[in-house]
Amino acid sequence: MVLAQLGGSISRALQQMSNATIIDEKVLNECLNEITRALLQADVQFKLVRDMTTNIKKIVNLEDLAAGHNKRRIIQQAVFNELCKILDPGKPSFTLKKGKPSVVMFVGLQGSGKTTTCTKYAYHHQKKGWKPALVCADTFRAGAFDQLKQNATKAKIPFYGSYTESDPVKIAVDGVETFKKENCDLIIVDTSGRHKQEAALFEEMRQVSEATKPDLVIFVMDSSIGQAAFDQAQAFRQSVAVGAVIVTKMDGHAKGGGALSAVAATKSPVIFIGTGEHMDEFEVFDVKPFVSRLLGMGDLSGLVNKIQDVVPMDQQPELLQKLSEGQFTLRIMYEQFQNMLKMGPLGQVFSMLPGFSSEMMPQGREKESQAKFKRYMTMMDSMTDEELDSTNPKIMTESRIMRIARGSGRLVHEVMEMLEEYKRLAKIFSKMKGLRIPKKGDMSSLSRNMNAQNMSKVLPPQMLKQMGGMGGLQNLMKQFGSTKDMMGMFGGGGE
C-alpha cells in the first residue's frame, strides 16, 4: 500500500466508526483492525503496529466516544500521537557546526540511492553557505566513482576518489585529509552498499569508520524495501554508530512504513527524505507533517514551503488585493497553474492537502492532469488581455470561444470545459472578498487577520468535512501555529 492509499484507508476506517450509532469496544476494535491492516500493508513492522494499537486502546476513553465527542478526531489524534512517538527516538541527531571540519559517513543497502543522496546532502548544505566535499570510498561497485564524479561535477562540489587504489580505507583517509587541508567544513564519505548477510563488507565499513572517525554516520534506506527495513537497519546499527537516517524514493506513490521501522531499529531520527531523482528533490524531515501526510491529514507547512519556492514575494500584494476585491481572473488562474506545475509531482502536492490524497491523483494520472493544465494554458495563450483580465464570464461569447479554439488548435467543447473550471475556481475565491488586507500586503500579515470562521468559508466543503468540521479546522490551525499555512494553498507565499 502506497503512502497516499494509507491515508485513504485510515480515513475510511475512521469514517465507518464515526457513522456507528453505538460506539463500544467491538466497534473500536474493528476500526483499529482496519488501521492495523493498512499500516502493515504500508510496511510498518508488525511489532510496532501491535504495540501502537495496544497503546491506543489504553488511551482512548470509550465513554467519550459513546458520548458523541468528535469520535473520528479522538481516534485520529491517538493514532497521530503514537506514530509521532515511534518516529521520535528521543534524541536529536548530531548538529553540524561551522568553524571546524565535520566528517559525515554514509552507509546503506545496495540500490538505496546512497551515492545520489550523498550529493543531495552536500548540495543542500552548499546552498546554506557550507563548503562541502565528497569522498568516494566505494571500491566494490563498478562505476561508483564515475557516478559520484558526475553528480559532484554537476553540483560544482569538489570530490576525491581513485581508479587504481583498491583499499577503501586508504581512499577515505586520504580524501578526508585532503579536504581538511583545503578548509572544507563538511566532508562526506560514501561507502560501499551492502546487505546484512555480507560480513566482509560490514567489516570494511567498520574499518572506514574507525579510520576516519566520522562525527555522524547516516544510514540511507530505500522506502520500498518493505518489512525487511527493520532487520536491515538493525544490522547496520549493530556494526556502526548510526546517528541519523535518510529515507529515499519517497515520491507521491511511495510506501512510508519503512521509515518508522528504520527509526525504531536504529534509535536515530530521520533527518531528510528524498522525493525524486533531481538534486533539489530533497526535503528536511519533520515528524508531525510526515505523520500528518501518512494519515491523509495533509502537510500544510510543507505545501507552504513549496509555494514559497515558486511564488515571488513581490507578486503577493497585488494578488491579495485582487482576491480581496473578489477579482479572480483567467490570468490569475493561468499563473496559479504555472505555480502548480513548478511544485513537483501533483500527487505529492495533493497528499499535502488535508482531506485529499494521491488516491485522487492515481498513478499514471499525474501526467494526464499536468497535460490538462498545459492544455488550458495553451487555450489562454490565445486570449486577448481583455479576456484574461475580465471578471465577467459573459464576455466569452460564442464567436470568442470559436476563435480561441481555432487559435489554440483545440475543440470548442475543450474551451468550454476550461471555462467551467475557471467558474468553479472563481466561486471558491469569491469567498475571500471583503477580507481586510494589511498595509504590509503579504500572506503572513493577512494570516493574522484570519480565523477559523473565515477559513471555513474559503475551504471546499469536502476538505472541511475531512478535517472534522469546524472543530477539526481549529485544532489543525493550532497545530500549525497560524493560518498562513492554510492560506498558502490558495496561491500565496509565506515569510
From TrEMBL:
GO terms for molecular function: 7S RNA binding; endoplasmic reticulum signal peptide binding; GTP binding; GTPase activity. GO terms for cellular component: cytosol; endoplasmic reticulum; signal recognition particle, endoplasmic reticulum targeting. Residues 269-282 form the SRP54-type proteins GTP-binding domain. InterPro entries: AAA+_ATPase, P-loop_NTPase, Signal_recog_part_SRP54_M_sf, Signal_recog_particl_SRP54_hlx, Signal_recog_particle_SRP54_M, SRP/SRP_N, SRP54, SRP54_euk. The keyword Endoplasmic reticulum applies. Keywords: Cytoplasm, Endoplasmic reticulum, GTP-binding, Hydrolase, Nucleotide-binding, Ribonucleoprotein, RNA-binding, Signal recognition particle. It is found in: Cytoplasm; Endoplasmic reticulum. It catalyses: GTP + H2O = GDP + phosphate + H(+). Pfam families: SRP54 (PF00448), SRP54_N (PF02881), SRP_SPB (PF02978). PROSITE patterns: SRP54 (PS00300). SMART domains: AAA, SRP54, SRP54_N. GO terms for biological process: SRP-dependent cotranslational protein targeting to membrane, translocation. Component of the signal recognition particle (SRP) complex, a ribonucleoprotein complex that mediates the cotranslational targeting of secretory and membrane proteins to the endoplasmic reticulum (ER). As part of the SRP complex, associates with the SRP receptor (SR) component SRPRA to target secretory proteins to the endoplasmic reticulum membrane. Binds to the signal sequence of presecretory proteins when they emerge from the ribosomes. Displays basal GTPase activity, and stimulates reciprocal GTPase activation of the SR subunit SRPRA. Belongs to the GTP-binding SRP family. SRP54 subfamily. The M domain binds the 7SL RNA in presence of SRP19 and binds the signal sequence of presecretory proteins. Component of a signal recognition particle (SRP) complex that consists of a 7SL RNA molecule of 300 nucleotides and six protein subunits: SRP72, SRP68, SRP54, SRP19, SRP14 and SRP9. This is Signal recognition particle 54 kDa protein. The lineage of its organism: Eukaryota, Viridiplantae, Streptophyta, Embryophyta, Tracheophyta.
